[in-house]
Specification:
alpha/beta; EC 3.4.14.10; signal; metal-binding; metal ion binding; serine protease
Amino acid sequence: MTASSLFLASLLSLAAASPAFQNFVLQESLNSAPSGFSTSGPAADSTTLNLRIALASSNFAGLEQALYDVSTPSSANYGKHLSKAEVNAFLAPTSDAVSAVQAWLTSYGLTATSASSAGDWLSVTVPVSTANEMLAAKYETFVHTSTGKSYARTLSLVPPRRGVSTYTFNSSPATTFNNPLASGPVLSSPKPASNVSTDASSSCASKVTPACLQSLYGIPTTPATQTSNTIAVAGFIDQYANAADLKTFLKSFRTDMSSATTFTLQTLDGGSNPQSGSEAGDEANLDIQYTVGLATGVPVYFVSVGDQYQDGDLGGFLDIVNFLSDEDDVPNVMTTSYGENETDLSKSLAFKLCEAYAAFGARGTSILFASGDGGVEGGQDQSCKTYQAAFPAGCPYLTAVGSVTGVSPETASSFSSGGFSNYWGTADYQSDAVAAFLTAQGTTNKGLFNASGRGYPDVSAQGENVQIVVDGQTGGVDGTSCSSPIFASVIGLINDQLIAAGNSPLGFLNPWLYANPDMLNDVTSGSNPGCGAKGFTARSGWDPVTGLGTPNYPAMLAAAGL
């Protein structure tokens, strides 16, 4: 029995014997810290924790139904996206939940503030000594070996049974150990490039540029006209988008556009966007250059999330959704090129964040995430014996984007993360597509993955040797983080046409995508090996390497009714 198991056994014995612990119930626990973390002993009693408490929403089932209702083309309510007030009514906890949790906090002399407009997240600052008492926890200082960063975490979460545990999903920080490397850009280092052609007929088989993508996918160069139509680019971990590099990029690759075309900055959690060339980020520049430079004329916002996270273990992922969802006019598209492994988050915390994506989608935002670069090893490479899942790619309320390379035909990138979630089941909108894949695959890879899980990615796009400019230098980069902004730009341009015609933007994409698979270019070759096995193979129809396929702008526009 491990030391943590002994602690847990002692705790449960104490719970049965001592009046102070009679009403506690085990909610989550770990036998030990994840690989790569080691403990340096108990956290100091005076260490301050900014505790986030997640309350169960009063009617998430209703929100999920409403999301599908406004996102399914055959529905009479298709495109009738919800208002902020309507979404918050679904998300809001019951008054009994709020009263019970506030009474529990008051008994420790604490007062929580609402950390979301719906009131389903509360925030309270407590010393470790109090957190240990109120959660029957044992906060320790854990060190991430490769970076030296330290964190106060506990291996068990035990809120009071009476009232509180009934209403809470999770507290954060607690049992989730975010790998500080896993939230980085899923992107390779820039590779030198020379003699880059800007000719529209140049082949994506050698170097990917806006011109070759326009030619390959039928993406128009005609500027968008609707100023209300916007794309939000999420920025994390001190990745900064450089305006001078964007200008150089446009001069090199979009000579038909004004090189003065730029983006609008939004910040939260102490975020910023310094403009010195040495601080230009590969990821941030990539995301901005392939939204501004491909979604011609669509207003682009770079949302820089700083390091002063208000969402504990979630690293700003919840903060940015709450920040944008609280706006009266939400962006029509949000693309994010960051992720981690599903197992890096506790199941309850992952579920609560996934709920926030459902709420954001119900407002009318198309949420796209890079699927990850670990093949079947999840969001990042890791040592594994069975196939892992990436997060947030496995959340069913967003669109995960995988990667392809080459032309005639396009082929799956070997690093393109795809597979099946261990947290969420197969979504209804994809059940037929996933069943067809599993039938075609037969017994291959049997036992290595969760065959009843939500399958991802949903779609894919070019993701190798994509040309960007960083600190004045042009080079090629690889990764599904290339693919997400490319697909997001296609959606942004379709939204422009929809709004111009007096229609609603697409919103949550997946029901529309799976209802119209023929509007995408099916990719039937390539695989994503990992975990010492062959991985999945791209094949006709949906597959967990390239999803339904890559963009075909004219066909997608037609499927949107234009």
